[in-house]
Amino acid sequence: MNKGKKMDAHAYADEVGPSAGRPLNLRQIEVFRAIMMAGSISGAGRMLHVSQPAVSRVLALTESRLGYRLFERVKSRLSPTAEARRLYAEVEQVYGGIQRVNDLAASLGQSGAGMLKIVASASYGQRLVPLALGRLRDRHSDARVDYRSVTFDELAAYFLSGQADIGISMQPPDHPNLTSVKLATVPVICALPKGHPLADHEVVHPEDFVSAAWIGYPRDTPLGRALQSFFGAGPACAAAVEVHSPVTACSFVQQGLGPALVDAWCIAPDQTEHMVLRPIAPAASVEVWATHSNLSAPPLLARRFLAAVKKVLETAAPA
After folding, report:
1. Angle of helix 26-38 versus helix 41-48 axis, rounded to 10
2. Which residues of 6-19 are buried (b: 16+ CB within 10 A; e: fewer)?
3. Phi/psi of residue 177, nearest 5 degrees
4. Coil, helix or strand for 65?
5. Contact 164, 117 (CB under 8 A)
6. What's the rounded Cα separation, in Å, for the pair 183 and 69?
7. Spatial CB neighbours of 304, under 8 Å, sequence gap ≥ 6
8. Which residues, given as ranges, of the chain have pLDDT below 50?
9. What is the predicted pLDDT for the residue at 114?
10. What is the per-residue DSSP string for 222-276?
């Protein structure tokens, strides 16, 4: 080889051929894309906020690595070769993916992961969940939420089918792919129709349920299990009406169907005007549990919602 001979990048690329191809780095891909979009070295430099010589140097190195030309000069402009056009199509797909990553990253920082999917027992959908969502949206007004009221039996299926990010319930679902943490203990109280004889009692006891005119729950429901300690061997008289949700029980109480034992969080503020509430003895309680999948970490927005739930439980009293 003549040591005195110099070759420009294009001549070098023509000489070495395709065997010299080596991987391109991200900067070379970025410069190539900018030249394709701008149609000139100077235009690419303006897009990238670098000098024209800097763009030329990167292009020269890129072509030398590849072993073939990416551009031909046609009337003082750069015309992409067939190889450049094929390469550009792939590069645009990569940049589309990068843009989606950036969009998602911005979304995660602003609102967690776009749509927050919450499932909860109907009881906690009356006050606890709305108060927590109010706190969340005060700080993250663009947060979008999909809320569903579900029964305890349905809870696990929503997580396993990807329809839930976070769940709030009276009992933790028993499933190896779900993790639950207890947030609080909530007292059970007696809700009575206005004018009911038990409304004159300061405290309601098991022996007060001497007639069938009251509203109860099946034994296998969360409230049914919670009340076993209250009634001991069982109520003196079975309930005339059994429901599966304390929210339904409160509605029946309002219609005068009799008293019901409910958790304190299930009572909406406007219902207190139409019912009489009394403590019970011996005391009974239910719990507030938060559940998420353990196959992946909860999204940021779910963690923020959970923090809001905890704050509400600390600062706001149930009915």
Report:
1. 120
2. eeebbeebeebeee
3. -95, 5
4. helix
5. yes
6. 65
7. 112, 136, 139, 140
8. 1-20, 111-113
9. 64
10. HHHHHTHHHHTT--SS--SEE-S-HHHHHHHHHTTS--EEEEGGG--GGGGGGEE
User: How far is 59 from 294, CA to CA, in rounded Å?
Assistant: 48
DSSP-derived letter for residue 30 is H
Structural tokens at position 232: 């001991």
The pairing of strands 178-193 and 275-279 is antiparallel
Q: Write the DSSP symbol of residue 113.
A: S
What local confidence, expressed as pLDDT, does residue 318 receive? 82
One-letter amino acid of 151: T
Domain boundaries 115-183+287-315, CATH class: alpha beta
> Is residue 81 within 8 Å of residue 68, measured between CB atoms?
yes
Query: Cβ distance 119 to 148 under 8 Å?
Result: yes
Return the pLDDT at 10.
44
Amino acid letter at 71? Answer: F
CATH level 2 (architecture), domain 186-285: 3-Layer(aba) Sandwich (3.40)
Q: How far apart are the first and last CA of the chain?
A: 93
pLDDT of residue 73: 83
What's the CATH architecture for 9-109? Orthogonal Bundle (1.10)
Q: What is the pLDDT of residue 104?
A: 61
Residues 245 and 151: their CA atoms lie apart, in Å, by 8
Judging by beta carbons within 10 Å of its beta carbon (0-12, 13-18, 19+), is residue 211 exposed, middle or buried? exposed
Contacts of 73 by beta carbon, 8 Å cutoff, 6+ apart: 79
The CB density around residue 167, as the number of other CB atoms within 10 Å, is 28
Residue 17 tokens, joined = 């051929």
**Total length of the chain:** 319
CB atoms within 10 A of CB 195: 9
- Distance between CA atoms of 42 and 51, rounded to whole angstroms? 8
Q: Please, where in the chain does CATH 3.40.190.10 lie?
A: 115-183+287-315, 186-285
Report pLDDT for 50.
93
**What residues does CATH 1.10.10.10 cover in the chain?**
9-109
Fill in the DSSP letter of residue 249.
H
Q: What is the pLDDT of residue 297?
A: 82
